[in-house]
Amino acid sequence: MNLSTIRPLTPEDAAEFQRVRLAALREAPEAFGSRYEEESVDTIAQWRARLAPREGYVLLGAFVDGALAGVGGVARGHTMKQRHKAEIWGIYVVPAQRRGGLARQLTEALLARAARMTGVRHVLLSVGADNGAAHALYASLGFAEYGREPDAMLVGGRLLANILMIRPLAAR
């Protein structure tokens, strides 16, 4: 893998983000809360709006040889009572770039972004109970399981569980 950069996605990246995100929803519907059928009808203006800069929210893109190869987001809690935590979501790496450490680099970059958000003390995420590779990655990065959500999603007529994980950030 020849990683060129991990950086925040901008509205100018909307077409590439749309391509990768829709591929993710088609390939792994059990890994995401949205459905391909829902997001595939969105206009390019809606995709650009998702990438507009906002405080406490960022979508990162991992670019390999100039092409978007992975994405993931982190968002701080919205209310004053929840601004001490952030959630990582939507991590996906294109099949051709898997097993080369890109998901780890992307997750580490998301953790670093969360650590720079004012007041954030820990980071949460959820992962499909059947996604052993992602669970192992997150555990290796210091995430610990704190619960399970049975029947978290209904995909193709099947109810799927999620593992809930948490990772404290270093004391500041």
From TrEMBL:
Q: Give the top-rank taxon of the lineage listed in the UniProt record for this protein.
A: Bacteria
Q: Which keywords does this chain's UniProt record carry?
A: Acyltransferase, Transferase
One of its Pfam families is Acetyltransf_1
Query: Domain N-acetyltransferase, which positions?
Result: 4-170
Q: Which CDD domains match?
A: NAT_SF (cd04301)
Q: By its UniProt entry, which PANTHER family does this protein fall under?
A: AMINOALKYLPHOSPHONATE N-ACETYLTRANSFERASE-RELATED-RELATED
Q: What is the protein name stated in its UniProt record?
A: FR47-like protein
